């Protein structure tokens, strides 16, 4: 019996041709532990050489698979071991050279992004973590492909409020340094609670401690496919809606599994995970918001939006997990404002606020993503928004994140252009009341009682 039936093949062709199905990313996870060296120049040389060698054929393999299987591969990326750990033995006080080495290696192999300029500080900062965080504004402003992340909280550790306060200031600095590009540095920086080690999606990808030396993780995206499937069950009960999404997610994940395994074989790497995330693009017909509206909402943000998103996220995971032996990453549904045509429209209408998005993050895959706010928003307000999102992740034992862009010189209602898959974002209003004294307290918000599960 063939692995894929003729009917499945024809359905896949339709999904690609008419419904925007694609492999959003083939991401190579690469350990840099063997690149550590006390001399920063030698460490950077080792990093450049290893990425250049191991990822030399990554783009070529992506292009070959797209041609052979007829499924577009939109991005090829690399995620590396968190640099704060690799750089620690140098004793340096500025990690900009590491960012430039990563950027040069990414350019050399032709990939879109490289992630892993990362620190994990949910319980506290090492001296190396502190150097990396201080280096973030310049590192992101002076590189093109480097993405960064900082894990600030976890269900087991609580929330590092000192780091939360610092990241508010770092985001402001990064926005100012790239104000002529709409604050692009901030679009490459994400803060997490409960960050996962096998995430293929930027800006939060890094190669975790428990991973093999070289792995391939694939991110599959198909909001348009799900939207088209739901058009066939208009007016039907939610039981049927959920079943339709599950069946569709199964088909999408099967495609991802095929590409992931073949990419891993050709690149002499270990197959990691298929991340089935409904990751939208600014293109019409590729929107998570339009899926929610297909369920009956007048516009995303209306009452019922959080319930609709909960159904979608759950059904995607249930369908996807049956189609692959290794589903991981952030699988579910993303709600980035700038990257989703329907979210942009909802925000412009005033139907979608930061507060409503925050409520939606309780049930989605990540969090407050690609949100533009006025450039004069205080750093403490940014930190307060981050703290709220970290609390949602901590208490609910889920991954949450914030990628927020203070648009210097912009006011509410203005548009900020990023280009490509990052799209454009309407500047959204923030709560006018401050959190200065709250953020100034510092320390650590303790983990919830249900974290004690040994």
In short:
This protein has 454 residues and is an alpha/beta fold. The chain is 43% helix and 19% strand.
Describe this structure in words.
The protein has about 450 residues and is α/β, with parallel strands linked by helices. Helices cover about 45% and strands about 20% of the residues. It contains 16 helices and 14 strands. The strands form two sheets. Strands 1, 2, 3, 4, 5, 6, 7, 8, 9, 10, 11 and 14 form a twelve-stranded mixed beta sheet that branches. The chain has a two-stranded antiparallel ribbon with strand order 12-13. Helix 10 packs across helix 12 (about 305-320). The chain starts with 5 loop residues before the first helix and ends in a 9-residue tail after the last strand.
| Average pLDDT | 90
The rounded Rg comes to 21 Å
Q: Distance between the terminal alpha carbons, to the nearest Å? A: 45 Å
Q: List low-confidence stretches.
A: none
Helix content: 40-55%
Label the overall shape: globular
Percent in strands:
15-25%
- Work out the helix count: 16
Order of helices and strands: HEHHEHHEHEEHHEEHHEHHEHHEHEEEHE
Main pleated-sheet profile: 12 strands, mixed
The secondary-structure class comes to alpha/beta
The strand count comes to 14
């Amino acid at each position: 019996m063939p692995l894929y039936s003729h009917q499945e093949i024809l359905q896949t062709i339709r999904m690609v041709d008419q419904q925007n199905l694609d492999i959003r990313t083939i991401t190579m996870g690469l350990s840099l532990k063997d690149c550590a060296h006390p001399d920063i120049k030698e460490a950077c040389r080792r990093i450049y050489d290893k990425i250049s060698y191991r990822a030399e054929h990554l783009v070529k393999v992506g292009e070959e698979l797209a041609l052979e299987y007829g499924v577009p591969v939109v991005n090829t990326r690399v995620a590396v071991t968190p640099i704060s750990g690799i750089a620690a033995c140098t004793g340096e006080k500025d990690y900009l050279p590491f960012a430039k080495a990563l950027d040069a290696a990414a350019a050399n192999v032709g990939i879109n992004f490289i992630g892993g300029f990362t620190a994990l500080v949910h319980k506290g900062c090492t001296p190396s973590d502190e150097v990396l965080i201080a280096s973030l504004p310049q590192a992101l402003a002076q590189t093109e492909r480097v993405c960064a992340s900082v894990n600030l909280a976890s269900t087991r550790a609580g929330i590092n409020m000192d780091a939360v306060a610092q990241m508010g200031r770092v985001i402001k600095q990064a926005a100012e340094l790239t104000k002529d590009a709409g604050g692009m540095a901030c679009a490459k920086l994400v803060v997490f609670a409960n960050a996962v080690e096998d995430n293929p999606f930027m800006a939060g990808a890094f190669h975790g401690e428990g991973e093999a030396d070289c792995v391939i993780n694939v991110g599959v995206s198909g909001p348009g496919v799900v939207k088209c499937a739901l058009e066939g069950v208009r007016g039907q009960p939610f039981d049927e809606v959920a079943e339709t999404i599950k069946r569709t997610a199964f088909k999408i994940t099967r495609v991802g599994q095929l590409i992931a395994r073949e990419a891993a074989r050709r690149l002499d790497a270990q197959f990691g995970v298929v991340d089935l995330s409904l990751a939208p693009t600014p293109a019409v017909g590729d929107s998570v918001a339009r899926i929610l509206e297909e369920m009956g909402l007048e516009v995303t943000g209306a009452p019922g939006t959080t319930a609709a998103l909960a159904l979608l996220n759950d059904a995607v995971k249930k369908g996807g997990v049956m189609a692959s032996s290794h589903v991981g990453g952030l699988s579910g549904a993303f709600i980035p404002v700038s990257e989703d045509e329907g979210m942009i429209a909802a925000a412009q209408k005033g139907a979608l606020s930061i507060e409503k998005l925050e409520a939606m993050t309780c049930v989605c895959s990540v969090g407050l993503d690609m949100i533009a706010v006025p450039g004069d928003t205080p750093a403490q307000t940014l930190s307060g928004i981050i703290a709220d999102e970290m609390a949602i992740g901590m208490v609910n034992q889920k991954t949450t994140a914030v990628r927020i862009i203070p648009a210097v010189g912009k006011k509410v209602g203005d548009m900020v252009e990023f280009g490509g898959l990052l799209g454009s974002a309407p500047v959204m209003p923030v709560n006018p009341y401050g959190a200065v004294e709250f953020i100034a307290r510092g320390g650590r918000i303790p983990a919830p009682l249900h974290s004690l599960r040994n």
